[in-house]
Automatic annotation (TrEMBL):
This is Putative fatty-acid--CoA ligase. Keywords: Ligase. Residues 9-381 form the AMP-dependent synthetase/ligase domain. GO terms for molecular function: acid-thiol ligase activity. It comes from the Bacteria. InterPro entries: AMP-bd_C, AMP-bd_C_sf, AMP-binding_CS, AMP-dep_synth/lig_dom, ANL_N_sf, ATP-dep_AMP-bd_enzyme. It is an enzyme of class 6 (ligase). It comes from Rhodococcus erythropolis (strain PR4 / NBRC 100887). Its EC number is 6.2.1.-. Pfam families: AMP-binding (PF00501), AMP-binding_C (PF13193). Residues 447-523 form the AMP-binding enzyme C-terminal domain.
Length: 535
């Protein structure tokens, strides 16, 4: 059977209609209520002229309307476009035009004004759906550029019943990924592949994908009423994967307007949160700081797992979380917008990230030939099976990232490098694009960052190459420290790193900053760090 994401959600809503599907800022919505709101939203979009295959940009922070917009669009076979709401006007113009968005859903007045300034550069945008009060500047610009403005409030007048066309597993979900360098790229997923890979076939805690909608309905009834807090913004791929995964299971998704460590910790007790999704140390560090501060005030008894995806999650942060609650299950997911959920890392005593053997993950050389288990060769980690169609409107990058082998097998090769041990375990070394070549020796930034994060005074760090006249490149670190810490010296950093790293991997220079720059989703800004370290 070919699965469609909207069919799956409606099946679950019909199976567990009275179960809580979404908790947003303390307000609960059952599956039947959320489905009805999504139907109203879908009908509003259809009335506004949005139809099958149309791309609609969601220029939004987390909200109930953000969730119903995603669901409403896929119900009418339109395509939601995730937008980083902290992008500059130039980056927003790029994503609106590159995605061929015909409509934008927007809320905040400052976002409306930025959008108003871009109408002239985004001629395909013909409709704007505004949540809340419409800004006068947007109204004037829309009139000048013949753009229709629709109030999201009008959804209340729409029918809560959905009468939609039959859908297909070939419908496309377009997920934009910012990564750490360059402009965002739109990853094209077939709905069926999205279900089978990022959503683990609807069975993330078991073996084998669900076979049909009846099995999904039955599994939702049997699944415990798990409460899952997504700390990341919904414009982030890891958050979208989690949203769909847990709505497919019939679980309860807890959302906050934006990431606030204090509010997340309060929600653990208030909303009986059992699982929290974070994005690496960018969220993990402030979260564990708050957990330590409130450990004698907040009841953590319901919390049994913290999961991270999309960024480095250091051992030191995990150890501090376990010190607060020793029975926590910590899961470090390995995946990407271009590959979906690949499974969970484990960490060995040397701090190496390890992936257990999997038929869907191999190591290949530059010719895409598989590197045999037990080889000492370093290669590229490649994913097989349910691979995205490619990057939207970028055949060159598609061919490079999603190559086809001589036997016809398509791969997803993102530049992650590793070694494969005799039993098939893959040891992750780092992203090739973040590899530093110092005098011919290869240094992976992630490995050095993990060592730095283990220093008790370091709150965050990025490792980048800096020019070196003799070695070509040298290892440089941009470091932020905890308030009240003693002044950190290069000598102290080097002494700390030499305990776990070979000498050539130890930073030769450091730049101290008040805060390491990251995206709202916790992604490292390596361009910023490289510029800083090179001046």
């Amino acid at each position: 059977m070919q699965f469609n994401l909207a069919d799956i959600f409606e099946t679950v809503a019909g199976s567990v209609p009275d179960r809580v599907a979404l908790t947003y800022e303390g307000e609960n919505f059952s599956y039947s209520q959320l489905d009805a709101e999504a139907n109203r939203t879908a009908n509003l979009f259809a009335q506004a002229g949005i139809s099958r295959g149309d791309h609609v940009a969601l220029f939004l922070k987390n909200s109930v309307e953000h969730v119903t917009s995603i669901l409403g669009l896929i119900k009418i076979r339109a395509v939601p476009i995730n937008v980083n709401y902290r992008y500059t006007p130039a980056e927003l113009e790029y994503i609106f035009t590159n995605s061929d968005s015909v409509a934008v859903v927007v809320e905040l007045p400052e976002h409306q004004r930025v959008l108003a300034s871009l109408f002239g550069a985004c001629p395909k945008v013909k409709t704007v759906i505004v949540i809340g009060e419409v800004d006068a500047e947007l109204v004037a610009a829309a009139k000048a550029h013949e753009v229709s403005v629709v109030s999201f409030d009008d959804a209340r007048e729409q029918s809560p019943v959905g009468e939609f066309d039959a859908r297909s597993g070939d419908d496309v979900y377009l997920l934009y990924t910012g990564g750490t360098t360059g402009y965002p790229k739109g990853v094209m997923w077939r709905h069926d592949d999205f279900f089978r890979k990022p959503l683990s076939g609807g069975n993330p805690y078991g073996e084998g994908a669900r076979q049909d909608l009846a099995e999904i309905a039955s599994a939702a009834k049997e699944f415990p009423e798990l409460s899952f807090l997504i700390a990341a913004p919904l414009m982030h791929g890891a958050a979208l994967y989690s949203l769909f995964t847990f709505l497919t299971l019939g679980a309860r998704v807890v959302l906050r307007r934006e990431f606030d460590a204090e509010k997340v910790v309060e929600a653990i007790e208030k909303d009986s949160v059992q699982v929290i999704l974070i994005v690496g140390d960018g969220m993990g560090l402030p979260l564990v700081d708050e957990m330590e501060r409130r450990k004698d005030e907040v009841d953590f008894s319901t919390l049994f797992s913290i999961t991270s995806g999309g960024a480095i999650w250091s051992t030191s942060v995990r150890d501090r979380m376990l010190a607060v609650k020793p029975d926590l299950l910590l899961r470090d997911n390995f995946g990407a917008s271009e590959s979906g959920n690949d499974g969970a890392f484990s960490i060995d005593e040397a701090g190496n990230l390890r992936m257990p053997p999997s038929p869907n993950m191999i190591l290949v050389d530059e010719r895409l030939e598989e590197i045999p288990a037990g080889s000492d060769d370093v290669g590229y980690i490649a994913r097989i099976g349910n691979v995205p169609l490619g990057y939207y409107k970028d055949e060159e990058k598609t061919a490079r990232t999603f190559p086809t082998r001589a036997d016809g097998t398509r791969l997803s090769v993102l530049g992650d490098m590793g070694k494969v041990e005799a039993d098939g375990t893959i040891v992750f070394l780092g992203r090739g694009s973040q590899c530093i070549n110092t005098g011919g020796e290869k240094v992976f930034a992630e490995e050095v960052e993990a060592a730095l994060h283990a220093h008790p005074a370091i709150s965050d760090a990025l490792v980048v190459p800096a020019p070196d006249a003799r070695m070509g490149q040298q290892v440089a670190a941009v470091i932020a420290t905890y308030p009240g810490s003693d002044e950190l010296t290069l000598e102290a950093v080097q002494e700390h790193c030499r305990k776990t790293l070979a000498g050539y991997k130890v930073p030769r220079t450091i730049v101290l900053v008040d805060e390491v720059k990251r995206t709202p989703a916790g992604k490292a800004d390596y361009r910023w760090a490289t510029t800083l370290a090179s001046t």
